Q: What sequence folds into this?
């Protein structure tokens, strides 16, 4: 059985989800989603801006796994935040996915207007069409502002985190507020070559695991929801084959030393899109 985390509203989220950023719409996404569900994943993380919601929905249906057994996340894009059209954008995402609810709906970035979007998401949640709502790419100061003005605490904050950029201070802050942390670019993304780091191979060799499996395990043991992306079925399977070994405290500490302090992706205070 795969590990799960119970969100602050009682919703249960599987701790590994397939990420589909930069996964092309059409067969590539359909096949990635199918491969993941066949491998045992029960969690898919997409977004309006990824352009592949329809294929995510198709992959779920083709897999034969009942919709209610799959945790589906999508996200409200910045243009829709700025245009104050969260509710319409949400309905459009449901239509593309071909579902009548999502498990988690996130504000993708703290774009101007996110405060009103948060109010709109609360109404969406009350309607039952999003089981949980949360944010993404929120720094401490964004969360402080939100919490000072809202009775509803976000269920999750999806942020960049990997051994290259652990983002540990923010992780601790978010966890300290009872908010789940989800890691994007958990394997270091496409920039750099985190998975080529000798230390990760050395640690993996002790357990018969790859660098990617070591990194996913490191996230799991930090209590983080991890969203590895791959378009290759073999890697998708491999990234889910991480429940039969445990990193030692020394392994965890060694991996933490890889952090450069440099982001792989955009800074939530200066993202320009
Ligand atoms: P690909 O989709 O070609 O497999 P992140 O999840 O941090 O964004 O990083 C994913 C990157 O790592 C992608 O470029 C993906 O490429 C690659 N990747 C995913 N899983 C593995 C794996 N098990 N081994 C090697 N590379 C992987």
A:
């Amino acid at each position: 059985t795969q590990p799960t985390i119970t969100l602050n509203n009682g919703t249960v989220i599987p701790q590994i989800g397939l990420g589909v950023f930069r996964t092309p719409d059409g067969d590539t996404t359909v096949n990635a989603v199918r491969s993941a569900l066949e491998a045992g994943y029960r969690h898919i993380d997409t977004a309006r801006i990824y352009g592949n919601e329809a294929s995510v929905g198709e992959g779920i249906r083709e897999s034969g796994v009942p919709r209610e057994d799959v945790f589906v996340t999508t996200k409200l894009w910045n243009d829709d935040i700025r245009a104050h059209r969260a509710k319409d954008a949400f309905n459009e995402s449901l239509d593309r996915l071909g579902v009548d609810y999502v498990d988690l709906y996130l504000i993708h970035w703290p774009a101007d207007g996110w405060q009103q979007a948060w109010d709109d998401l609360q109404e969406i949640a009350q309607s039952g069409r999003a089981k949980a709502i949360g944010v993404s790419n929120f720094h401490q100061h964004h969360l402080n502002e939100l919490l000072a003005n809202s009775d509803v605490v976000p269920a999750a904050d999806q942020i960049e985190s990997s051994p290259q950029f652990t983002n540990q201070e923010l992780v601790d802050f978010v966890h300290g507020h009872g908010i789940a942390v989800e890691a994007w670019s958990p394997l270091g993304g496409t920039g750099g070559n985190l998975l080529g780091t000798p230390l990760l191979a050395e640690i993996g060799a002790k357990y018969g695991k790859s660098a990617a499996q070591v990194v996913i395990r490191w996230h799991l043991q930090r209590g983080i929801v991890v969203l590895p992306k791959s378009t290759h079925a073999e890697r998708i399977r491999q990234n889910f084959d991480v429940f039969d070994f445990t990193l030692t405290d020394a392994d965890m500490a060694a991996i933490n030393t890889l952090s450069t302090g440099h982001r792989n992706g955009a800074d939530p205070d200066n993202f320009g899109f």
